């Protein structure tokens, strides 16, 4: 039942976005009775929190290309591909919009990204082992920097994102890490 | 009258955010008759577009510290100070939320940021002249990189921003630029 409700939540978000996420719509789509959905998930934010919780627990396809530059490029391209996907893209946008309007949804989204940053930290750990970047490089900060320009374009400046934007963000994050600008005690 | 309506728009946004931006509230606050506000500004998005248009035309206090690192740090700290300000912060958040929900507001916000990127380009032009970064460095991309991690934290991951986060984002953008990762034809 939880899977059915989650699938229905994602489908409704994909088609109608956050403003269209009503418990009734999810109940109808999932075949679960609406009083059950209300009792277990409460409201739209409860549905989003659960969908994000499941998503956060799923392993991210962390790349292992042999270089930090290649790994960061693959991570950044994953973000671009996700937002370009006709099903996943609207859901991801809906999650961000929900977080801007609801404290519960925000907490769920933040936990999701914290988990993503943790999962991706291994690409930086490997780069430290290979001697590509200084020991003490802040892994989460490298990952943030590789994807932040893409989210900035999408949600703030409204500029397009594509593989070139992904590659450039990844190259910049890699260069900053190699220069020692992203160690735990940042270079002034 | 335009100034009065703009001041009222910012005050209502600051206190009630985008969901609370009603033409009636702006009319009452500004002392301009609501039929006039409706006729000239149309709706909440028209009010936001006009407020952003005026803001975009205002010069940004572009720093000139003598080094690219110093200038980028000052720019990033301006963003942190803006969001920390009890009046400006809620308005800036409301603009982003409005853009996520309205095409008109999005176009206004995007024009605002395009103008900001143009205004800030001079700090990169000076750094090229001083030989700090390679000729052909993409000025807008350096500025994006210096502020994107702050917006990513605020609007996507929900992580706090402070002067340390600003300094780190600025240092990373400067390091990437110096390494040649932000030239018009990006280093692979």
- Could you name the ranges of chain A where pLDDT drops below 50 across 5 or more consecutive residues? none
The first-to-last residue Cα distance of chain A is 53 Å
The number of helices of chain A is 9
Q: From N to C, what is the helix and strand string of chain A? A: HHHHHHHHH
Task: Provide the CATH topology of the largest domain in chain A.
Answer: Tetracycline Repressor, domain 2
User: What is the name of the CATH architecture of the largest domain in chain A?
Assistant: Orthogonal Bundle
- Oligomer designation: homodimer
Characterize the overall form of chain A. Answer: elongated
What is the fourth-level CATH superfamily of the largest domain in chain A?
Tetracycline Repressor, domain 2
Q: Helix- and strand-based class of chain A?
A: mainly alpha
Largest sheet of chain A: none
User: Biggest interface: chains and residue counts?
Assistant: A-B, 47 and 47 residues
Number of strands of chain A: 0
Account of the protein in words:
2 copies of one chain form a homodimer. Chain A is mainly α. The first copy, chain A, has 2 domains: 2-54, Arc Repressor Mutant, subunit A, CATH 1.10.10.60; 61-178, Tetracycline Repressor, domain 2. In chain A, 73% of the residues lie in helices and 0% in strands. The first copy, chain A, contains 9 helices and no strands. Chain A has helices at 2-16, 23-30, 34-41, 44-57, 68-84, 88-101, 103-129, 139-157, 163-178. In chain A, helix 1 (2-16) crosses helix 4, helix 2 crosses helix 3 (34-41) and helix 4 runs parallel beside helix 7. In chain A, 43% of the residues are buried. Chains A, B: Residues 1-59 form the HTH tetR-type domain. Chains A, B: This is AcrR family transcriptional regulator.
